[in-house]
Design brief:
Blueprint: E1 3-7, E2 10-13, E3 18-25, E4 33-39, E5 46-51, E6 58-60, E7 68-73, E8 78-83, E9 92-99, E10 116-121
Parallel strand pairs: 2-10
Antiparallel strand pairs: 1-3, 3-8, 4-5, 4-9, 5-6, 7-8, 9-10
Length: 122
């Protein structure tokens, strides 16, 4: 049974950087496409980025394009989201989850992490 754990969140000033990690246990990450999502207070959960198996596909939502970089290290069973030039509007709880394909949302057979808080101060 796959388990995902996010880490790397914290408090950072506007313009700063954070690197989020999504570590898998109970299974190998290499066979899963990983999506990154975020949820800010009072706003619906939104897709942020995605990286497919073999890194064939990498996607970014328009608000983070050019600032965030998604990657993975299957030997370490870990996916990453490098976040640069952070803005206050990036403040949210960030989640990783498995998806069947980039562009799709997780379904009842996919796995979510517990989330990590990112707070960007102005």
């Amino acid at each position: 049974q796959l388990q995902l754990v996010e880490s790397g969140g914290g408090l950072v000033q506007s313009g700063g950087s954070l690197r989020l990690s999504c570590a898998a246990s109970g299974g190998s990450l290499y066979r899963f496409t990983i999506g990154w999502f975020r949820e800010a207070p009072g706003k619906p959960r939104e897709a942020v980025s995605c990286i497919s198996t073999h890194e064939s596909t990498k996607t970014y939502a328009a608000p983070v394009e050019g600032r965030f970089t998604v990657s993975r290290d299957d030997a370490k069973d870990t996916a990453y989201l490098q976040m640069n030039s952070l803005k206050p509007e990036d403040t949210a709880v960030y989640y990783c989850a498995t998806v069947d394909r980039c562009g799709q949302w997780p379904d009842g057979y996919d796995f979510w992490g517990q989330g990590t808080q990112v707070t960007v101060s102005s």
